[in-house]
Amino acid sequence: MIEINEQDIESWESRSEGEIYIAREKYHRNAELFLSNFPNLKNDIVNAFNGTVDGLDYNVSTNKGKFFKRIKADSLNKGIKNRLGHIDDLKFEVEYKEGILMDSPATGGFDFALFDERQNVANFRNYCFGRRSIPNGQVEWEKEISSRGDWAEIAEAYDLPREDSLGENILFPKQKPTIIGEVQFGNWGLLHYDMLKVLHLDNFTDLDLLIYVTAADSMNEYISSGTVNYLRTEEIIDKYSSILKVPIWLIGLDIR
Fold first, then answer.
1. pLDDT for residue 60
2. Which of 246, 242, 181 has its CA nearest to residue 29?
3. What confidence tens digit (pLDDT) does each residue in 180-229 have?
4. Which domains occur in the chain, in start order?
């Protein structure tokens, strides 16, 4: 924890923005080689994690008569995701269901993801009308297509669901990588849960990269003890490197 003098508290708590930057990085399973093939993507991510974040909640905690600088993790999380929103085609709160990656306003999935939407819609078509389709496939198809304009455009462009091929799967080769990301400032136990989610997803889909973002250095001190941070995450990745076969770009953020 970083101590603050009592006379400086008002100035600290009056702040609402800060400049984040990438302070530490780790590449697992040759993630750097993968990223070298997608320089624009790497630049977009780097730009998102270097710059001003507003709407931050600065506050102070006390312990044994001393005062310590704090920033509420929720405000950091929200501000960082706002910066990610400038990346084209990035999806938020993405879940994996029956071979399909689905973004929604609900939480519980991965914080953000990039993937081949054309292939994803084809997989949804197979889920509804393919070789092992669900009984109410037509209803499910119409519900999702009517509520997802991007899916509707793809379905129209490729004449899906293709009634002449009902009962058969349509295969669209993947033309874009599948990348998932997590911004994690929560309790350190969530780190294990996140890695289990990654292992589960990697068993069912061709996952190319995990981008895992957490706090390092001063930012970690500002959040609270017992939370996920860069050093804890690095330790877990090293400990379970034999089973974490997905390339991982671990990013530690700091703030000034």
1. 97
2. 246
3. 999 999 999 999 999 999 999 998 888 999 999 999 999 999 998 889 99
4. 16-57+72-114+176-255 (3.40.91.20), 117-165 (no CATH)
Q: What is the residue whose two structure tokens read 């590449």?
A: 27
What is the reported pLDDT for 224?
A: 83
Structure tokens at 103: 């973004």
CA distance 149 to 162: 19
* Distance separating alpha carbons of residues 177 and 245, to the nearest angstrom: 16
Strands (E), the chain: 17-28, 51-54, 58-63, 66-71, 91-97, 100-103, 110-114, 179-183, 209-215, 248-255
Span 39-45, mean pLDDT?
A: 97
Mean pLDDT of the chain: 95
* Amino acid sitting at position 242: S
Contacting residues for 246 by C-beta, under 8 A, at least 6 apart: 29, 198, 202, 207, 208, 209, 210
Q: Which two tokens stand for residue 233?
A: 């995450």
Q: Which residues are registered as beta bridge partners of 250?
A: 26, 212
CA atoms of 98 and 206, how far apart (whole Å)? 14
Residue from 14, 25, 80 nearest 51 by CA: 80
56 Cα distance to chain centroid = 20
Alpha-carbon distance of 35 to 128, in angstroms, equals 34
